[in-house]
Amino acid sequence: MILISHRGNLNGPNPQKENHPDYILEAINQGYNVEVDVWYVKGEFYLGHDKPQYPISLNWLYERKDKLWIHCKNIEAMERFNSLYNTYNYFWHENDVATLTSKGYIWSNIGYYFKNGITVSLEYKKLPNYVWGVCSDYVYLYKHG
Questions:
Q1: Phi-psi region at 29: left, alpha or beta (left = phi > 0; alpha = psi -120 to 50)
Q2: How far is it, in rounded angstroms, from Cα 84 to Cα 86?
Q3: Residue 86 has what pLDDT?
Q4: What is the pTM of this model?
Q5: Which of 40, 104, 142, 143 is exposed most, by the fewest CB atoms within 10 A?
Q6: In 3D, which of 112, 70, 113, 114 has the Cα closest to residue 92?
Q7: What is the pLDDT of residue 112?
Q8: What is the pLDDT, as a whole number, of residue 95?
Q9: Using CA atoms, how far apart are residues 114 and 121, in angstroms rounded to an integer?
Q10: pLDDT in tens, 45-77
Q11: Dihedral (C-alpha) 143, 37, 78, 45: value to the nearest 10 degrees?
């Protein structure tokens, strides 16, 4: 099962650190993929959940592209990634049951499970065997039980 850290969290939510570039790197360095919230505003990329908070470069994203699941937080981010020739794994969703990422993965919302899909589970709980991965604040527990 692929384990995706939700905003850099490994062992529970940490709103003060979530989406901070250093926090993201900590999770990647421990071997996890990471779901990040990305904004594109006035020609610049930012990390941040409710608003653009931490400026980052396209190069920062590129160097980690194989470990990042990019949740576009505004239409401008989606349009910008769409112009980058499918280099990144990105998606957009709000209240949808599921969406497809740019790399063709099923990304489901909390409480929904799809065969060979990624499910979001913000708590630690047993998942159906047929899901391919989980995005969670508790990926450490999914790895170590």
A1: alpha
A2: 6
A3: 83
A4: 0.96
A5: 104
A6: 70
A7: 96
A8: 87
A9: 13
A10: 999 999 999 999 999 999 999 999 999 999 999
A11: -130
Flag residues of the chain having pLDDT under 50. none
Tell me the chain's radius of gyration from C-alpha atoms.
Answer: 14
Q: How, if at all, do strands 118-120 and 2-6 pair?
A: unpaired
For residue 75, the SS3 value is helix
Per-residue burial over 96-119, b = 16 or more CB atoms within 10 Å of its CB, e = otherwise: eebeebbeebbbbeeeebbeebbb
Q: Which residues contact 138 (CB under 8 A, 6 or more apart)?
A: 9, 10, 11, 12, 121, 123, 124
**Closest of 11, 76, 64 to residue 36, by C-alpha:** 64
CATH class of this structure's domain 2-144:
alpha beta
User: What pLDDT is attached to residue 102?
Assistant: 97
133-136/118-120 β-pairing: parallel
Is residue 120 within 8 Å of 113, Cβ to Cβ?
no
Beta-bridged to residue 4, according to DSSP, are 33, 135
